[in-house]
Design a protein that fits this description.
Radius of gyration: 20 Å
Order of helices and strands: EHEEHEHEHEEHEHEHHHHH
Largest sheet: 6 strands, parallel
Structural class: alpha/beta
Helix content: 40-55%
CATH class of the largest domain: Alpha Beta
Strand content: 5-15%
């Protein structure tokens, strides 16, 4: 493989667009595709916009998938069947859960391609600035081939072992995100319900051991009614389901995450799916 592998990125939504621009900025030849073509067209200034999956992946050295769930990833890669070379590496970066990850590992084996499981930590802002944290797992002999892509999209890469391990760690990280955001929403709601200005909660914890950057960012957004999506409610609810399923499969009870999952489901039913996860505050 050359020093400049040709990349096909499938999925140019909230995360994929920023990732694509950073891959292109790193000087890597890039093709992009999205099921809704209008979402890929703004990238025509930095990449070749393909009309089909087959066109995007034909002759590509690395195929990156950044799609909604395991079903959409599997369906998309089925469209690539017959166009993937023997040396193609599939860099799978969507959040798909344990069962979904195992399913995609099996599909990669069937397609005859090397598979790297590499979900990311971060939302739209880090995706746009190339500051994602990449959790990666897969064969050691292809890591050098995908590292230029991971360096372009992320601030650091944490390499694990066999494919599937990264997707499992991603669930643990997202369990924490969901728990923190729901906790912020509940603390603000309690402060308000006790007759106080909810902003006082943020002031009380600021700079102390209970503070964290996410507390201020999400808390202020909740109070300002700013729910521009960086991590959409629909995606958070999907991930919460994956987390609960994984925990139950492992025989672990996650009572807090299960309660948060149920609350996210109510927020989703109330029509907040296209808003940020922090819109959970509106349902308190």
């Amino acid at each position: 493989m050359s020093d400049q592998p040709t990349i096909a990125l499938l999925g140019t939504g909230t995360m994929g667009e920023g990732m694509a621009r950073n891959i292109a900025a790193a000087g890597l030849p890039l093709r992009v595709w999205n099921r809704t073509a209008s979402r890929a067209e703004p990238l025509a200034d930095v990449a070749t916009v393909a009309a089909s999956v087959a066109e995007a992946v034909r002759g590509a050295d690395v195929v990156v998938t950044m799609l909604y769930d395991a079903d959409s990833v599997a369906a998309t890669m089925e469209e690539a069947r017959g166009e993937l070379g023997a040396d193609t590496v599939w860099l799978q970066q969507s959040t798909v859960g344990v069962e979904g990850s195992d399913r995609l590992v099996a599909l990669a084996r069937e397609l005859g391609v090397a598979y790297v499981d590499a979900p990311v930590l971060g939302t739209r802002g880090p995706a746009e600035s190339g500051a994602l944290v990449v959790l990666a797992a897969g064969p050691e002999d292809v890591r050098d081939q995908v590292q230029p892509i991971l360096d372009a999209i992320g601030s650091r890469t944490l390499w694990l072992g066999a494919a599937g391990e990264a997707s499992r760690l991603k669930l643990a990280a997202n369990a924490w995100v969901i728990t923190v955001v729901e906790g912020i929403a509940e603390a603000l709601a309690l402060t308000r319900s006790l007759g106080l200005d909810p902003a006082l909660f943020l002031e009380a914890v600021a700079g102390g051991a209970m503070d964290a950057p996410y507390v201020g960012v999400k808390g202020r957004a909740m109070l300002a009614g700013d729910f521009e999506p960086s991590f959409a409610m629909s995606g958070a609810a999907k991930d919460a389901d994956l987390i609960v399923a994984a925990a139950r499969g492992a025989g672990v009870e996650l009572a807090v995450v299960e309660a948060a999952r149920d609350h996210l489901a109510r927020a989703l039913a109330a029509g907040h799916g296209d808003q940020d996860l922090s819109a959970t505050y509106l349902e308190h």
